[in-house]
Amino acid sequence: MEIFGSNQTEFNHPAQNPTHSSAFIFFHKKTSKMSGSSNLVAMKKVVQQLRFEASINRVKVSQAAADLQQFCMQNALQDPLLTGVSSSTNPFRPQKVCSFL
């Protein structure tokens, strides 16, 4: 795969491929319409964005799922969708009609 010149780089995983980055796609679409100096500014922005994306700490899906499950189990008793709301504290309960006979 050729990126920015004649360097041949192989990527084993799509997440390692800089062409999948939103910054790269933005840059690639804009470069055909820009002059040299604005092209350089755009490339610097792309590099900055790619460095930012590379610095983000990744969490494995299995770890994130385990953390989410643990959070749900810890907070299940306070969740009104799971435990329900008592009719005395429910502001959305149907109002009783008062009738005199």
TrEMBL record:
Mode of membrane association: Lipid-anchor
Main location (coarse class): membrane
InterPro entries: G-protein_gamma, G-protein_gamma-like_dom, GGL_sf
Residue runs in coiled coils: none
Pfam families xref list: G-gamma (PF00631)
Keyword hit for Cell membrane: yes
GO cellular component, one term: heterotrimeric G-protein complex
MF annotations from Gene Ontology: G-protein beta-subunit binding
GO biological process entries: G protein-coupled receptor signaling pathway
Swiss-Prot/TrEMBL keywords: Cell membrane, Lipoprotein, Membrane, Methylation, Prenylation, Transducer
The keyword Cell membrane is annotated on this UniProt entry: yes
Segments forming domain G protein gamma: 36-101
Record localization: Cell membrane
Family affiliation: Belongs to the G protein gamma family.
Subunit structure: G proteins are composed of 3 units; alpha, beta and gamma.
Function: Guanine nucleotide-binding proteins (G proteins) are involved as a modulator or transducer in various transmembrane signaling systems. The beta and gamma chains are required for the GTPase activity, for replacement of GDP by GTP, and for G protein-effector interaction.
Protein name in the entry: Guanine nucleotide-binding protein subunit gamma
Species of the source: Cottoperca gobio (Frogmouth)
Classification lineage: Eukaryota, Metazoa, Chordata, Craniata, Vertebrata
Chain's gene name: gng5
